[in-house]
Recover the amino acids of this structure.
């Protein structure tokens, strides 16, 4: 495996994302900038300057035309991917923790933090894709406050008008964003904060990671837990490997506890688990701090991890990864 | 009116209501004592006497008032009758007074005899006819060694984590399973007996022993607030210790409980089978030596290997040896040894044990071997320090050796009692630096020859190979020794020595330099040894060594012909972060390392390794506390049978290998079937959800797009590498 070290950030990574073609990788960090990289050689294509606070989250549309980002400066920004220009800025009372594009790129969902007397809010904006993209409506199309524990992660589902959320208490829910009604929930999906949520290509299932040291695959319709992957370290991110029956888990000791354990304890590794057998398959070392975010190439050719140490590592899989069948010739559906 | 008939009101049965509201009169005389032995007086002295009696009672901590006393009078003589009755508040106070005042000397002529009033009546009305006690039905008890009959010959271990105890079987990977999860609550820790028969838990109220296949309670010893326990080597007796002195107050009485004589002591010896208390001792006097408070030695009582004697040392004065089961001082006097610091019993070899067992069975045709004690005394005035070997019970001195410039001695017996090594820490004349001598007594030879191994460094750990002729030491000259601090790991050297059969002395086999190891753990079968770095926050290495690597089938007594020290081979290196305890299983096949929450809270848990250092199992568990292998008793096979097995090892191992093969195959097929099932479930679920999506009209175009063929771009690059200009001269033919 050929790791490419992307050294463009000065502080810890918060989220990384491949575009749909897999040729670009977007990364955002606490150093307030967003970078975009060529995935095949790790060359930096450019940066998106403008945020005045930790950029918590980023997402890119399927055409790689628009990018959306949310930051601790209480703004949500829409960018032109090609030019790096900020097209539109929305302002909120609190920080934006999570954004996501809908499947048809016409909508964006964002979660704002619960702070300073403001409740955690989920807003859905309609994106005007005509022209330059600078003419956006200021007001959200839908907005509601989830009752109970605050939401930490969210994504659109395949059902129209329904979003999937993960919460601080470990709960996962389905919300109808038009009415703000909680359609369904699973209170005991996790025992601690849900830290990441990534959808399968057809959005029929998703993987969540949590500080309760486990990652789980859920059916996005019934919210049933399909698979559970239990590790010995708090998890910050979980991703589904495309075209291979694996899941990738990353995490590590909390930053405050890092000094009390040695790196050789192997807590800062990306763990590969078999999606169906719930067995650990292998680990990839490299980071010297906890892994904050993992993303997999949409065609499964490579994966990237971003760590608390400020580095992004892009790993292109070797031929042997595609050829070997460590579990025999069992046909496993995607 | 069909209602109440007033005439018949007395017919109504009130008995239930009466029973309910019946006031229970305390008409027993449990709170009344009869005091005998009171001086006979006339009325004139009554006031004075009563005052005096009240004062005496109060002085002993059981205050009474004059009103509580009833004194009967002989009206014919006008004098008292010599006894009186005292009423107490309740039966408890009466009991206390009985304990305090019975046999109390009132004056030179009179001694109080106290009895319960109810007792007087009871004994007076005793039925003299003998009633045959009913014979209890015989209930067969479970076999306490049932775990040895496990068909897969697995060993057991106990894990104590949080508040839970679990007992596991450990064998081949497929055979490891939970054996029992007991519901024991509120105890300090658990401990196996030395032969593995019982497991003990230390509760507030005392010690409990459990055993047998269903882990029934076997025995209990009521020693409140017990902190330490120690079993005798043959599991006949148990010693318990608590830092709180024993208080006897209204406790149930009987041979299983403390009696008033035991008050204030804190060390108790019990018989395991009957549960009877044999004797108690006080350790408080020995802990406070002349030089201030010294740490108590544990075990405080040392057992002879045959459970015949138990001895304790009074530092600087004597060794007291008690016989069992009576617990009387042997020969009615202690071994008075001025200045004695420490002693050790010589362990029995297998041969000795055979003789003891045969002697017990066969009418003692052979005399049981004598026990041996080794002790040492430090330098006092002009007298040199001295190590003495003493046989017991004959008390004959077998060998003495004088030593000079001694600051400390440690006695290490080889487990068969073949050798005794006295590790002598010696100081130079200036007392500035400390170095070490090993004085090795060869006990089985005539006149007990002593050999000295001189070392320049300080030896921090010493260990004999079980049943072997080798030992290992950890030595260091690190200046940080003695002032431990966080992050300081002492550099050490580990050396192996072996008895050279030709020259008949101990020679250095090999030294491993620049280690951090501070613990030596020999396999209980010998040959393999693990060097571990324990208790360090930065290093936690485990080194696995084989000391007979090239000799595949070395027979006992065969002289080693290979180069000296060439057979030592490292088998593996491993690491267990924060390891605090390292322990071999009784068969010497597996090693367990554990990191206990009692020492630190980082990555508590345990790991099991094979003898080559391959990790077999690792459990990281919060609040993990204790890991203990269950010990095994000595083998029941005779020497000949063992030899037979060794001879036919090949045949046996073939059998086992076939079994292993079969097992792995079944495991593999099971695993495959399990996986297939998982895949089928997954695929079925995927098919279902895909169908649902299709029904809902999910747009697949995007997906289809992503499946389009990878575009291959071929780029032709033309590059000019070099340009050469050549002038070609045209030569024209000049015809």
């Amino acid at each position: 495996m050929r790791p490419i070290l992307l050294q463009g950030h000065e502080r810890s990574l918060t989220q990384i994302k491949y575009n749909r073609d897999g040729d670009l990788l977007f990364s955002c960090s606490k150093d307030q900038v967003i970078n975009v990289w060529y995935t095949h050689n790790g060359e930096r294509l450019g940066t998106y300057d403008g945020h005045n606070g930790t950029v918590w989250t980023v997402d890119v549309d399927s055409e790689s035309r628009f990018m959306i980002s949310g930051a601790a400066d209480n703004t949500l920004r829409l960018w032109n991917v090609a030019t790096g220009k900020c097209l539109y800025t929305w302002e909120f009372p609190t920080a934006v923790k999570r954004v996501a594009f809908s499947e048809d790129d016409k909508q964006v969902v964002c979660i704002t933090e619960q702070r300073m007397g403001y409740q955690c809010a989920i807003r859905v904006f309609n994106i005007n894709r005509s022209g330059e993209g600078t003419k956006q409506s200021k007001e959200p199309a839908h907005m509601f406050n989830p009752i109970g524990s605050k939401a930490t992660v969210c994504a659109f589902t395949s059902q129209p008008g329904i979003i999937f959320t993960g919460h601080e208490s470990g709960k996962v829910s389905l919300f109808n964003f038009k009415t703000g009604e909680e359609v369904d929930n699973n209170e005991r999906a996790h025992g601690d904060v849900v830290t990441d949520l990534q959808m399968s290509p057809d959005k029929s299932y998703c993987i969540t990671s949590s500080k309760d040291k486990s990652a789980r695959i859920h059916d996005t319709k019934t919210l049933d837990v399909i698979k559970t992957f239990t590790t010995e370290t708090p998890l910050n991110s979980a991703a589904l490997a495309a075209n291979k029956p694996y899941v990738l888990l990353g995490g590590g000791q909390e930053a405050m506890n890092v000094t009390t354990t040695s790196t050789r304890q192997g807590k800062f590794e990306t763990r590969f688990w078999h999606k169906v057998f719930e067995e650990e398959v292998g680990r990839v070392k490299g980071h010297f701090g906890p892994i904050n975010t993992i993303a997999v190439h949409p065609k499964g050719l490579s994966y990237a991890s971003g760590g608390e140490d400020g580095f992004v590592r892009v790993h292109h899989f070797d031929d042997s990864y595609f050829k070997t069948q460590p579990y025999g010739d069992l046909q496993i559906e995607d | 009116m069909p209602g109440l008939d007033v005439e018949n009101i007395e017919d109504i049965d009130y008995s239930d209501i009466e029973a309910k509201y019946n006031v229970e009169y305390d008409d027993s005389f449990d709170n009344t004592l009869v005091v005998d032995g009171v001086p006979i007086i006339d009325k004139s002295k009554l006031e004075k006497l009563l005052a005096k009696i009240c004062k005496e009672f109060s002085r002993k901590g059981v205050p009474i008032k004059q009103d509580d006393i009833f004194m009967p009078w002989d009206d014919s003589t006008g004098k008292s009758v010599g006894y009186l009755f005292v009423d107490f508040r309740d039966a408890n106070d009466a009991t206390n007074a009985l304990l305090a005042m019975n046999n109390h000397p009132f004056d030179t002529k009179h001694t109080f005899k106290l009895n319960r009033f109810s007792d007087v009546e009871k004994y007076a009305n005793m039925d003299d006819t003998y009633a045959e006690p009913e014979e209890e039905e015989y209930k067969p008890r479970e076999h306490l060694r049932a775990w040895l009959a496990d068909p897969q010959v697995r060993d057991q271990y106990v894990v104590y984590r949080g508040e839970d105890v679990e007992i596991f079987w450990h064998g081949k990977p497929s055979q490891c399973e939970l054996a029992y999860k007991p519901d024991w609550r509120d105890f300090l820790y658990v401990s196996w007996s030395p032969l593995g028969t019982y497991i003990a838990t230390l509760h507030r109220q005392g010690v409990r022993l459990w055993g047998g296949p269903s882990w029934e309670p076997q025995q209990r010893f009521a020693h409140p607030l017990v902190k330490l326990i120690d079993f005798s080597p043959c599991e006949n007796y148990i010693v318990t210790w608590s830092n709180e002195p024993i208080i006897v107050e209204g406790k149930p009485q009987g041979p299983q409980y403390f009696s008033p004589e035991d008050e204030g002591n804190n060390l108790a010896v019990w018989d395991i089978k009957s549960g009877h208390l044999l004797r108690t001792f006080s350790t408080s006097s020995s802990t406070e030596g002349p030089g201030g408070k010294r740490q108590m030695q544990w075990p405080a009582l040392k057992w002879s290997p045959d459970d015949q004697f138990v001895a304790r040392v009074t530092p600087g004065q004597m060794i007291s040896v008690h016989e069992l089961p009576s617990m009387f001082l042997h020969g009615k006097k202690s071994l008075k040894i001025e200045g004695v610091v420490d002693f050790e019993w010589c362990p029995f070899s297998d041969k000795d044990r055979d003789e003891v067992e045969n002697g017990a069975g066969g009418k003692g045709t052979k005399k049981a071997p004598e026990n041996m004690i080794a002790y040492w005394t430090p330098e006092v005035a002009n007298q040199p320090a001295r190590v003495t070997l003493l046989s017991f019970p004959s008390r004959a001195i077998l060998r003495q050796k004088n030593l000079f410039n001694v600051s400390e001695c440690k006695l290490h017996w080889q487990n068969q009692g073949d050798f005794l090594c006295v590790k002598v820490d010696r100081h130079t004349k200036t007392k500035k630096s400390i170095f070490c001598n090993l004085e090795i007594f060869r006990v089985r030879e005539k006149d007990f020859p002593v050999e000295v191994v001189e070392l320049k460094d300080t030896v921090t750990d010493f260990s004999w190979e079980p049943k072997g002729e080798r030992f290992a030491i950890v030595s260091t000259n690190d200046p940080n020794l003695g002032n431990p601090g966080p992050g300081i790991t002492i550099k050490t050297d580990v050396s192996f020595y072996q008895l050279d059969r030709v020259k008949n002395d101990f020679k250095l086999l090999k030294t491993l330099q620049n280690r951090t190891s501070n613990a030596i753990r020999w396999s209980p079968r010998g040959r393999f040894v693990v060097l571990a770095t324990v208790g360090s926050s930065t290093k936690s290495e485990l080194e696995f060594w084989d000391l007979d690597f090239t000799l595949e089938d070395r027979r006992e007594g065969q002289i080693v012909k290979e180069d000296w020290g060439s057979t030592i081979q490292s088998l593996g290196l491993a690491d267990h972060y924060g390891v605090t305890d390292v322990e071999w299983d009784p068969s010497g096949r597996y090693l367990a390392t554990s990191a206990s929450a009692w020492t630190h809270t980082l990555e508590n848990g345990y790991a099991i390794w094979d003898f080559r250092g391959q990790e077999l199992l690792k459990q990281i568990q919060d609040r993990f506390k204790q890991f203990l292998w269950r010990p095994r008793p000595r083998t029941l096979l005779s020497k000949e049978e063992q030899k037979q097995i060794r001879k036919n090892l090949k045949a046996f191992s073939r059998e086992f290998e076939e079994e292993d093969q079969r097992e792995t195959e079944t495991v593999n097929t099971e695993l495959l079937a399990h996986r297939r099932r998982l895949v089928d479930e997954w695929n079925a679920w995927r098919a279902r959800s895909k169908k649902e999506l299709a029904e809902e009209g999910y747009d697949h175009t995007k997906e289809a797009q992503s499946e389009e063929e990878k575009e291959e771009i071929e780029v032709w690059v033309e590059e000019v590498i070099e340009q050469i200009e050549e002038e070609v001269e045209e030569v024209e033919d000049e015809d």
